[in-house]
Design a protein that fits this description.
Elements lengths: L2 H17 L15 E8 L3 E2 L3 H9 L6 E4 L6 E2 L4 E8 H33 L4 E4 L8 H9 L4 E2 L8 E3 L1 H5 L4 H9 L5 E5 L2 H7 L7 E5 L3 H8 L6 E5 L17 E4 L1 H4 L6 E5 L1
Parallel strand pairs: 6-7, 6-12, 8-9, 9-10, 10-11, 11-12
Antiparallel strand pairs: 1-5, 1-13, 2-4, 3-5
Length: 274
C-alpha cells in the first residue's frame, strides 16, 4: 500500500474512531482481559470492498490484531460466506466492531452497485459515472470502491471541470459570451439540457465537450441523438439498476447515476465471536 493511500485511510478511520469514543467504551471496561476469535460473514450476495478501512479500525487501537481473509477486495461474495476471521484482544475487537463494519458494509454496498451498473453498460460500450452525491468526508473511499469495477467520477470536485446546470443557466445573461470565457480556463465544459429545444441552442456553441441530457425519456434520448454528431452525450436523472436497460442506447457515451453513492443500503453482514 502506498503511503498516500495509507495516510488517507488512517485519517478517515481515526475520525470515525474518535467520533465513536472507542477508547472510552463504557461497555468493555469491565470485560476480562484476553484474546478472542471472531468471524465476519456476509448475509447477502455482494461485492466485497473495504478491507483496508476494516483492518485500520482495529489496528489503530491495537496493532497486534490479526486478520485471515478468505476473499479480496472486488470479489463477488455469496450469501452466508465467511469472509474474514479476526484474532486478538477482546476489548479492542468489541469496541471497534461497529466502526469497522460501517466501513466494510458501506463500501461493499457502493462497490456492488457500481459493479452491477457497469456490468450492464459495458456490454453497450457506455461509461457509468458516479456523482458528487457522496457522504461528506467519504469521497476518497467511495472513489476507490467505484473504480474497482471501472465506474469513474463524473467529476471529482468543483475545480476539475465546468458543469453548467439549470440554475447556472438562469444566472447567465449572455450564454455565448459565458462559454467564450469558460474556454479560456482550458477545462472540460459540460452543459445540461432539459429539452430538445434547449439542446439545439447549446449545440450552436463551439467548445462544449459534453451535453448532459437530464431526465430525458428513452424516446427523447433517441431524438436528441439524431441532432448531435461530434458532441459527447451523457444521460442523467433517475436512472438506476432497475431501468438502466432502457437507456443503453447506441450513441450514448456516459450515464451518471447518483444512486450509486446516494441511495446506499449497507451490505448485510455479521461479526460474531466464536
Amino acid at each position: 500500500m502506498n503511503k498516500i493511500l495509507n495516510d488517507k485511510i488512517k485519517q478517515h478511520v481515526k475520525l470515525s474512531l474518535t467520533e465513536d469514543q472507542v477508547r472510552q467504551d463504557s461497555s468493555t471496561k469491565n470485560i476480562d482481559k484476553g484474546n478472542i476469535n471472531a468471524d465476519i460473514k456476509f448475509r447477502e450476495k455482494s461485492i466485497m470492498f473495504g478491507k483496508l478501512w476494516f483492518e485500520q479500525s482495529f489496528r489503530i487501537i491495537d496493532p497486534r490484531i490479526k486478520f485471515k481473509w478468505y476473499f479480496k477486495d472486488g470479489d463477488l461474495v455469496k450469501k452466508n460466506s465467511l469472509v474474514c476471521t479476526i484474532s486478538g484482544d477482546r476489548r479492542c475487537i468489541l469496541s471497534c466492531e461497529r466502526v469497522a463494519l460501517n466501513f466494510l458494509q458501506t463500501l461493499s454496498a457502493v462497490s456492488n452497485s457500481a459493479y452491477q451498473l457497469t456490468e450492464k453498460a459495458n456490454k453497450k460500450n457506455i461509461q457509468i459515472l458516479y456523482t458528487r452525491k457522496t457522504i461528506p468526508g467519504w469521497r476518497y473511499a467511495i472513489d476507490l470502491a467505484c473504480r474497482k469495477h471501472g465506474c469513474l467520477p463524473h467529476r471529482k470536485n468543483l475545480r476539475e471541470s465546468i458543469l453548467i446546470k439549470e440554475n447556472h443557466l438562469k444566472c447567465i445573461d449572455n450564454f455565448s459570451q459565458f462559454i467564450h470565457e469558460c474556454r479560456k480556463l482550458n477545462k472540460k465544459i459540460i452543459v445540461e439540457a432539459n429539452s430538445i429545444a434547449q439542446l439545439k441552442d447549446i449545440l450552436q456553441e463551439s467548445g462544449i465537450h459534453r451535453v448532459l441530457l437530464d431526465n430525458f425519456t428513452p424516446n427523447e434520448v433517441r431524438k436528441a441523438l439524431r441532432i448531435t454528431s461530434k458532441t459527447k452525450i451523457e444521460l442523467s436523472g433517475n436512472i438506476n439498476i432497475n431501468n438502466i436497460h432502457n437507456y443503453l442506447i447506441p450513441g450514448v457515451d456516459y450515464i451518471s447515476v447518483g444512486s450509486i453513492t446516494k441511495n446506499i443500503t449497507a451490505t448485510d453482514m455479521t461479526l460474531l465471536v466464536k
